[in-house]
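Hello forum,

I keep getting stuck at the same step: I have a sequence, I want structure tokens, and every attempt I make locally crashes halfway through. Rather than fight my setup again tonight, could one of you with a working pipeline run this one for me? It's a single chain of 380 residues.
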Amino acid sequence: MSAIPSVTGYSGKALRVYDIGIAIQGMDGYMLRCIKLVVVSLLLALLCACSTLNASGVPATDIGNQITGPNQYTGIPSPNAPSPPGAGGYYGDGGGGGGGGTPYTPLAITKVWVERNPDRLFIQTHGGPVNTPKTISITESHNLVFETMSVELESSSTAEFPFWFTDQLTAGPVEITATAESGEELTEPYTEDLGLGFRDIREHEALCAIPRATRTAVGEPVLIQVYTSFLPFNRDLSYADSVAVTWETGGAYVAGSLNVGGPGGGQKFPDGVWGAMKQIPVGFLLPEDEMLQAVPVSAQPGREYVAFNVTPIGGGYSNMHGHLFNFELAFDEPGTYTLGFLAFDEVERTYYSNQAGWRYSWSNIGNDFEQFTTSVTVVE
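Reply #2:
Ran it on my machine without issues. Output:
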């Protein structure tokens, strides 16, 4: 056997290919066969390991049990592989894997939202047994009345519940609690604050007219609350000279119902925005009922208005938000009546003034707010 050239003197540098070749030539046949056998064995072991893994590095025999999200599966289910805990398996496999291949998700309520004017609550569901009707039920509600408390769905995933307020002037949350049922599955109660009901208006210089109840019968009076948001500091309110509230033809002011400030209390009790004045009024001048008859809006056929005014005696001024006044309306025909304000009809119709006699207008009289329903549905 030839002598192997010395590799000393390289000072740790990598050996050149030429030198390695010379070293291999110096080995005998037996040693070379051993090295070849070791290399082939390593290659075979590597190939076997790769063949048992899929592209994700998961054993191929368990490909049916890969979880890509909550209660979701990919791939073809393995006949013998159990379903992951809480996942429910696949449709058609008895809940434990081994059939069909359609992913299965437990029944759940996933979204609740409201659309306004007309008022409707929507409850969206997801999952549940395949080809099985779902029943969505409202089990509890606060300040709301629903046309139906239960809706059965054959194929859709979203149930619609028309509703109305019994009193949307009540402070506090407006909540519903609902459940969904399909086959033998029943969800846990789902509670949601709908973000409705009386809350302060964030917009400055806004005026709004809010019906206490949003559904009433023909001839039955419904209370209407007129409310002002914050006013600029250089535009104080001392007198509500004229506030023209509008609605569709068919409504009438209920005699004797005009009341200063918020609901309740005496007719001329200084609450609401009047109670927040720097100097509390000692009394009020209010228009006689004969002056509060509905008048057609000349530029809006089919609508009419009443111009209210509240004149405090001995009062100061205020920039605060609060109740201006309230009154009652009654309707002589079924239908939907939407409240609004009239800025101008031959002359200015909605404005206020300060103690010096300067006249101002609210910049927002559109009467369109997310938290309030501003229409009344009248039924027989």
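Residues 1-18, 53-99 have pLDDT under 50 and may be disordered. If your local run keeps crashing, start a new thread with the error log.
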